[in-house]
Design a protein that fits this description.
By secondary structure, the protein is an alpha/beta fold. It folds into three domains: about 1-60, Alpha-Beta Plaits (2-Layer Sandwich), CATH 3.30.70; about 70-145, GMP Synthetase, Chain A, domain 3 (2-Layer Sandwich), CATH 3.30.300; about 165-335, 3-Layer(aba) Sandwich (Rossmann fold), CATH 3.40.50.150. Helix content is about 25%, strand content about 35%. It has nine helices and 17 strands. It has helices at about 15-25, 70-75, 95-105, 170-180, 200-205, 215-225, 245-250, 265-275, 295-305, and strands at about 1-10, 35, 40, 55-60, 80, 85-90, 110-115, 130-135, 145-150, 155-160, 185-190, 205-210, 235-240, 250-255, 275-285, 305-320, 325-335.
């Protein structure tokens, strides 16, 4: 169908589109077409097009409406996306199957739909999953439906939800911590998982030691370090972090302690790993009546009087359960004179 449009160079496309939108004449019902090094951007009318543009008429295809799961279901389902995996949390099997079918029929880039089949369990903090739907492609035929690639602040992380713990909801919190890291720092991630703290830290020029009890998580971390081009800056260790103290005593300028249910059990280990001055990012889950006090008390008990303890940040990460908060303490240890 012939519609009015403007013709611009590809490098001017985004600026031109914004100018048309500001003028109120950008046509969202037809597609922008690239042809012979020219972009044709549709407009609703030739009247009101900024004077810098010349208009013409051209046959441009109608924009296809994006199909969402809600369009099929008639209601907005609760979904979480992690890479090309869509996650639901439904107790009703019929409702879960209905949502999965709608997801696969929609335009969401979903390779599989998973339903949470258990709570997080065990010292490796993994859960069971029910595969509700799966779509195989040539690129993914050999991949488990629980494996995906998550992208976060310019980094990508390959992971298997059935084998490792990972929360995309902590992306903003991880970015907050990473922004504090300077090149040349010694960063030790005590519970590293697949590397969402360790790999961005290495990308900022830090020398990183990443430890995790889950051997599969360490395998993924090493692969992710290669994917993100920082494998030369990361030492990945599979095992209990308490076992590395002899090798890294007094080494760390910064420690990440993201094990909120039991980080207090590792505070003495953290103090052993801390250098002359060290920042600890200590994650905890506590009652909202005193979310920070227990963590501060545990760190002071382990560090003083060897270190002066300065609490730099008391930060609520998210609500965890009714009257319970997931919090982070940024604490600086400075060795006493």
């Amino acid at each position: 169908m012939e519609v009015p449009c403007i013709a611009v160079l590809p490098e001017d496309g985004e600026e031109s589109r914004q100018l048309l939108a500001e003028a109120g004449v950008l046509d969202d019902d037809h597609q922008i077409v690239a042809e012979d090094d020219t972009l044709y951007i549709p407009v609703t009318t030739v009247d009101g097009v900024p004077d810098r543009f010349e208009t013409q008429f051209r046959d441009l295809p109608a924009r296809r409406t994006v199909q969402t799961p809600a369009d099929s279901l008639g209601y907005e389902p609760s979904l979480e996306r992690l890479g090309d995996v869509v996650i639901v949390d439904e107790d009703d099997p019929n409702r879960a199957a209905e949502i999965a079918e709608a997801v696969m029929e929609s335009d969401l880039p979903a390779r599989s739909v998973l339903n949470r089949a258990s709570k997080i369990k065990g010292e490796l903090r993994v859960r069971d999953w029910e595969v509700l739907a799966e779509r195989e492609t040539d690129e993914t035929v050999d991949r488990s439906p629980t494996e995906t690639v998550h992208r976060e602040y310019g980094h990508e992380f390959l992971l298997d939800l059935a084998a490792v713990y990972f929360s995309p909801r902590l992306a903003t919190e991880r970015h907050r911590v990473i922004d504090q890291i300077e090149a040349g720092e010694h960063v030790l991630d005590m519970f590293a998982g697949v590397g969402p703290f360790a790999i961005p830290a290495a990308s900022r020029g830090a020398e990183v030691v990443a430890v995790d009890l889950n051997e599969t998580a360490i395998d993924y971390l090493q692969e992710n370090a290669r994917r993100n081009g920082v494998n030369e800056s990361i030492t990945a260790i599979s095992g209990d972090v308490r076992a590395v103290v002899d090798d890294y005593r007094g080494w760390a300028d910064r420690l990440v302690m993201n094990l909120p249910h039991s980080a207090d059990e590792f505070v003495e280990t953290a103090v052993d790993l801390a250098g002359e001055e060290c920042v600890i990012h200590y994650y905890d889950i506590q009652h909202d009546s005193d979310p920070f006090g227990p963590g501060i008390e545990a760190i002071r008990a382990a560090a003083e009087p060897t270190y002066e303890v300065t609490v730099e940040t008391e930060h609520v990460v998210k609500s965890y359960a009714p009257h319970e908060l997931n919090v982070c303490l940024d604490v600086r240890l400075t060795r006493s004179a």
